[in-house]
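Tutorial handout. Part one gives the primary structure; part two gives the three-dimensional structure as C-alpha coordinates.
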Amino acid sequence: MRFDYDEPSRSLLIEWSDGATHLIPFAVFRRACPCAACRGEPGFGGRFATDPELRPGEDELADISLVGAYGLNAVWADGHNTGIYTYAHLRRLGEGVSAG
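Part two.
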Protein backbone atom coordinates (compact mmCIF):
# COMPACT_ATOMS: atom_id res chain seq x y z
CA MET A 1 0.00 0.00 0.00
CA ARG A 2 1.22 3.46 -0.90
CA PHE A 3 -0.41 6.78 -0.06
CA ASP A 4 0.13 10.40 -1.06
CA TYR A 5 -1.63 13.75 -1.19
CA ASP A 6 -3.26 14.81 -4.43
CA GLU A 7 -3.39 18.57 -3.85
CA PRO A 8 -5.13 19.55 -7.12
CA SER A 9 -8.17 17.46 -6.16
CA ARG A 10 -7.68 17.94 -2.38
CA SER A 11 -7.75 14.17 -1.98
CA LEU A 12 -5.82 11.30 -0.46
CA LEU A 13 -4.45 8.94 -3.11
CA ILE A 14 -4.15 5.31 -2.03
CA GLU A 15 -2.57 2.64 -4.23
CA TRP A 16 -3.20 -0.85 -2.85
CA SER A 17 -0.86 -3.81 -3.32
CA ASP A 18 -3.54 -5.59 -5.41
CA GLY A 19 -3.47 -2.76 -7.98
CA ALA A 20 -6.63 -0.95 -6.85
CA THR A 21 -6.37 2.83 -6.59
CA HIS A 22 -8.65 5.14 -4.63
CA LEU A 23 -8.85 8.92 -4.51
CA ILE A 24 -10.63 9.99 -1.31
CA PRO A 25 -11.54 13.70 -1.03
CA PHE A 26 -10.23 15.28 2.18
CA ALA A 27 -13.78 16.26 3.21
CA VAL A 28 -14.96 12.63 2.92
CA PHE A 29 -11.79 11.43 4.69
CA ARG A 30 -12.36 13.83 7.61
CA ARG A 31 -16.05 13.01 8.02
CA ALA A 32 -15.06 9.33 8.19
CA CYS A 33 -12.69 9.89 11.12
CA PRO A 34 -13.21 6.86 13.38
CA CYS A 35 -12.17 8.46 16.69
CA ALA A 36 -14.59 8.77 19.61
CA ALA A 37 -14.64 12.58 19.39
CA CYS A 38 -15.90 12.43 15.79
CA ARG A 39 -17.95 9.21 15.75
CA GLY A 40 -19.21 9.30 19.29
CA GLU A 41 -19.37 6.72 22.02
CA PRO A 42 -22.07 5.54 24.44
CA GLY A 43 -23.71 8.63 25.92
CA PHE A 44 -21.81 11.06 23.68
CA GLY A 45 -22.92 11.94 20.16
CA GLY A 46 -19.62 12.88 18.57
CA ARG A 47 -18.68 15.84 16.40
CA PHE A 48 -20.18 14.63 13.11
CA ALA A 49 -23.17 12.87 14.66
CA THR A 50 -24.58 16.24 15.73
CA ASP A 51 -23.32 18.57 12.96
CA PRO A 52 -22.13 17.09 9.65
CA GLU A 53 -21.03 20.46 8.23
CA LEU A 54 -17.27 21.01 8.09
CA ARG A 55 -15.83 24.09 9.74
CA PRO A 56 -12.79 26.00 8.41
CA GLY A 57 -9.65 23.86 8.64
CA GLU A 58 -11.50 20.61 9.27
CA ASP A 59 -10.88 19.32 5.75
CA GLU A 60 -7.34 20.68 5.38
CA LEU A 61 -4.94 17.77 5.78
CA ALA A 62 -1.71 18.95 7.46
CA ASP A 63 0.08 15.59 7.76
CA ILE A 64 -0.47 11.87 7.56
CA SER A 65 1.64 9.01 8.89
CA LEU A 66 1.67 5.24 9.22
CA VAL A 67 0.47 3.66 12.45
CA GLY A 68 2.25 0.35 12.79
CA ALA A 69 1.31 -2.11 10.09
CA TYR A 70 -2.44 -1.52 10.21
CA GLY A 71 -3.42 2.06 9.48
CA LEU A 72 -2.87 5.77 9.00
CA ASN A 73 -3.11 8.73 11.37
CA ALA A 74 -4.24 12.07 9.96
CA VAL A 75 -3.36 15.48 11.38
CA TRP A 76 -5.79 18.20 10.32
CA ALA A 77 -5.17 21.96 10.13
CA ASP A 78 -7.64 22.52 12.99
CA GLY A 79 -5.36 20.43 15.26
CA HIS A 80 -7.44 17.24 15.31
CA ASN A 81 -5.14 14.20 15.30
CA THR A 82 -6.74 11.32 17.21
CA GLY A 83 -8.24 9.30 14.36
CA ILE A 84 -6.53 6.07 13.34
CA TYR A 85 -7.89 4.90 10.00
CA THR A 86 -7.33 1.14 9.68
CA TYR A 87 -6.51 -0.19 6.23
CA ALA A 88 -9.85 -2.03 6.22
CA HIS A 89 -11.68 1.24 7.00
CA LEU A 90 -9.75 3.06 4.25
CA ARG A 91 -10.49 0.31 1.74
CA ARG A 92 -14.24 0.45 2.46
CA LEU A 93 -14.14 4.25 2.30
CA GLY A 94 -12.28 4.21 -1.03
CA GLU A 95 -14.61 1.63 -2.53
CA GLY A 96 -17.60 3.69 -1.42
CA VAL A 97 -16.20 6.82 -3.07
CA SER A 98 -15.39 4.90 -6.27
CA ALA A 99 -18.89 3.42 -6.42
CA GLY A 100 -20.59 6.75 -5.72
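Part three, for discussion. The first helix runs from residue 26 to 31. The helical segments are 26-31, 36-39, 47-50, 87-99.
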